[in-house]
Amino acid sequence: MGDLWARRERVLLQRRLTTLRRVPAIVIPYRGDAKRRLPSSLRAALAVAMLGDVVEVAAQVGRVLVVTDDASVVPSGAEIVADPGAGLGAAVAAGLERVAGPALVVNADLPAATPDALRRLSEAGLALVEAADGTTNALSLPDPRAFVPVYGQGSAQRFRAHGFATTRIPELELDVDSDADLERMGARVGPRTRALLAVPA
Bridge partners of 106? Predict the structure, then answer.
């Protein structure tokens, strides 16, 4: 009976350790001046609100690192990494340098993101979520060393050329670059973004 109990405890411990190893760190690159196509009256406040929504969701999944040139807007609980100022790829690389295990890279303009969506992304292996315009909204990296800095127009295709598979996660496909994007999302946005836009829940 004692041997059976010991084996059961070892199995349970192994399961707990496996679960812990699978919890990803989430790297969120953020630059407040990136949303130039949004109305100037809303741009700064909306960028901060969306960042807050993404950080809140990510914190329910794992460790959160925000790579930014403006630490003052980062919600408490997230680690701040200085943006090296050499573009999105360099910012993501700076965040991933602090990560030893599995990681997600999640853009800060995804206010419809949910914890479940991030968990599904983490389970997808080496994968990307593509935006409607062919850019990349999010990445799953079982090993952060798999990251390649190929952002920009058409980046999803370039990531695929480096072995990333495309995974369909609607909540992470909805990025915000214009008024039309916000109208399309409606009440699916997070609470900070919803409050700013006065969208009913």
Answer: 138
The amino acid occupying position 50 is M
Q: What is the dihedral of CA 15, 116, 132, 126, to 10 degrees?
A: -10
Q: What are 17's two structure tokens?
A: 């350790």
Helix (H, G, I), strand (E, B) or coil at 34: coil
Domains of the chain: 23-197 (3.90.550.10)
- Label each residue of the chain as H, E or C: CHHHHHHHHHHHHHHHHHHHHHCCEEEEEECCCCCCCCCHHHHHHHHHHHHHHHHHHHHCCCCEEEEECCHHHCCCCCEEEECCCCCHHHHHHHHHCCCCCCEEEECCCCCCCCHHHHHHHHCCCCEEEECCCCCEEEEEECCHHHCCCCCCCCHHHHHHHCCCEECCCHHHHCCCCCHHHHHHHHHHCCHHHHHHHCCCC
CB 27 within 8 A of CB 50: no
Region 142-168: mean pLDDT is 96
Q: Is the pLDDT of residue 12 over 90?
A: no
Please name every residue paired with 82 in a beta bridge, in sequence order, or none if there are none. Answer: 68
CA angle (24, 193, 62) in 5-degree steps = 10
Q: What are the residue ranges of helices labelled H in 60-129?
A: 88-96, 115-122
Distance CA 95, CA 108 (A): 14
**Percentage of residues of the chain with pLDDT beyond 70:** 73
